[in-house]
## 1
Amino acid sequence: MKETINGLSVFLEGSSKNKSIIFIHGFPYDHTMWKAQIDELSKNYFCVTYDIRGLGESPVGDGQYTMESFVDDLEIIIDKLKLDKPVICGLSMGGYISLRALERMQNRFSAAILCDTRSEADNNEGKLKRAAAIKRINTEGLAPFAKDFITNCFGDNYKKNHKEEFEKQIAKSSSFDPVGVKGCLLAMIGRNDTTEYLGKIKIPVFVICGEKDALTPPPVMKAMADKIFGAEFVVIKNSGHMSPIENPEEVNAAITKFLLKV
Ligand code: MLT
């Protein structure tokens, strides 16, 4: 079922009587990146996902986003749906939103799943790369940037064995409004570092990383997990940065096992 909340497209699967999980996608993707998880987990959980402002079906507005405004949107969705302590599950940029949401309102969640993400803010080199990406989108249009960025996200195994899906993903992201994509890049440039807060997280946390993740590699994510009291860490085989898409069987099994304990 689809609902519009605060202008955003929100998607609900499973019985609302069950424990809820809210899934937050990465950049430059949309809610459909969680399809394999939602197909499986909605049998036992109320699964909520949405398109982040500026991406997918959600409106672009003025394209002036911050990590704070992304967390505001998340909070409004949780309030409107009256979700009682959902599990928060975010990948990469969705992980940045999740980490900042934990910093702002940890008591609103029962557990967190952090996939292929990091707590550090962009360093100078990272900020310049994003500025160059904005310039490239302005001069060449969105498609060449989307193709290169997405190519770097996926591992070789997926690109070779799922060529058609991979090409479809590039085509879909290339069709997004460039204003929304650039707005997300600016929000990521401007985000705070959440590393200091990791030691203050009290809820159960599960950290998931694709073994071939080139953007947030296993050592970076293991170091993050080590800073969170009691956090579990798992490396997903045959996967790059997009582990829920690249190896859904292993990701689903790992998440299911974690959820049974929380
Ligand atoms: C993502 O997958 O959300 C991006 O890799 C995040 C980023 O560019 O930092």
## 2
Amino acid sequence: MCGIVGFTGKQNAAPILLEGLKKLEYRGYDSAGIAVENSGVITLSKVSGRIANLCEKTDNGNNIPGYSGIGHTRWATHGAPTDANAHPHMSCDGRFSVVHNGIIENYMALREELHAKGYAFKSETDTEVIVHLVEMYYSGDFREAVMKAVSRLEGSYALGVLCSECPGKIIVAREASPLILGIGVGENYFSSDVTALVAHTRNVLYLDDGEFAELTSESITVYDCTGAAIQKPINRITWSVEAAEKGGYEHFMLKEIMEQPRAVKAALAARMQENQIVLDGFDLSAKQLSRIRKIVITACGSAYYAGCAAKYTIEKLCKIPVDVQLASELRYADPQIDRRTLLIVLSQSGETADTIAAMKECKRRGAQTLAIVNVVGSTIAKLADHTLYTWAGPEIAVATTKGYTTQLSVLYLFCVSAAKTMGYLSDEDYQTLVDHLRELPKKIQQALDMCAAIPQLAAKYHSNHSMFFIGRNTDYAVALEGALKMKEISYIHAEAYAAGELKHGTIALIDEGQPVIALCCNRDVAEKTMNNIVEVKARGAQVLALSLSGNRAISAHADDIIHIPPVDPLFQAAVEIVPLQMLAYYVAKENGCDIDKPKNLAKSVTVE
Ligand code: F6R
């Protein structure tokens, strides 16, 4: 996720762009840049680090005069957060400049094509192909060049393009990334979201997928994908600036929960090319994979629980034993790890101190390392032999949500790909699994749509002092994460238990009214868990069950039921967690907790 802004009018653009970028900084903050057109010349300024660095470099925009411009604040995906990779990107001839939010999935093929035609690349980004395409297609008609360039792109984009030969004009385009146009008086704007606009105007147009627009100081013309001019309704923004930053949601956590279909799509789609999984940072051959005797997954907190859930899928598909270890334990253990161990390190931030220490210890013992990390260029990403980024965009809420589901998604990609490489999957089975993976974003969206009753359920369950989360197999792994979510944001003691273990002690704690959240989604073991529901019900528990839609039997046992859509059991955890995130969120809200900043917790734990 990145933020883009644009302005064209009769005032100096740069200070307005910088103010807008500050408002979008929550969307990404590892580098930033602006490009301003002045009397037919485009001047570029970009720098790694926060927007404050760009303000300093440009004297708050005062040393870049010009009345139209585009700006970008970056959250690195393709290429480290360096000055060269920061946007805007310029064409070789200096006539065009582009800012982009999204991911161009076919950028490698386009890059090769453009390179062969003599276009010189200055960055490692996917975005740079766009500006070279515009230059290649330009023959005097700016809009036509952008439309032709865009017709070559696969993936998601919100774009703003400047052309030195068209002073005061900006072309924007959108596909699967947000883009809003702000209507001023004698000036017009665009932005990734309304936060950057509300200081200037509350009248906006929302572009839809496949649409383009041409902005000048006096007009905005919107075009459909065929190039025909269309009319769009003008909307009035009523949100406060604070609400706008959170996309209109009350908390970043809720916004990030809702973003999961898009985040998981970003993690998956670019790595699925023509029905094949292509892992950018991981290229072990069948021979190398067959030498691996065991996989150790290490991480902390939710990332550790993502590993717990993925263990089942990896063992089933890759037939390699998987040992999931808490990094804080592994670092002081005497682990049986050697050159034949693949260590998978999971971390949203890439900076968790215990995870780094465990990783270093395992590397010292000869393990091969694969990092699955969100923050590009972070310590863990740099330490690893292979890195796969989760491309979830910045996560602001302390409690991770999209961090967890995107880690799982990348782990699923890894194991389907590795199982195929090792010869454990027929072409047909491989194709079925790839198709199921491709459906994950849609399934997550369906799970979100099925959460309508959760606020009422939260109102019913919020005043309890403790909750049990039970399940078996993958349901148990999800229960661990569900209980952590509940604990950390609602401050209710929540304990996850393997349902089959209840009889070995914990059932002694089940009394009249004790809430038990029973996860019954895994078809292979759901019936067994239903027996455990009967046992706790007999002792007076109130049972809130989570089950697949269509499971009628459960209604005879549970007091309340939340459904999720049917999903391939191998990939179910990434969908099943969604209602539990929502439950924790609404329980915390009922209890008046500081949801985005729970007490005693920090987003990145860089000390032991
Ligand atoms: C829980 C949570 C933490 C993190 C853990 C690891 O919601 O966010 O448990 O998962 O601190 O952090 P990363 O993934 O940054 O290594």
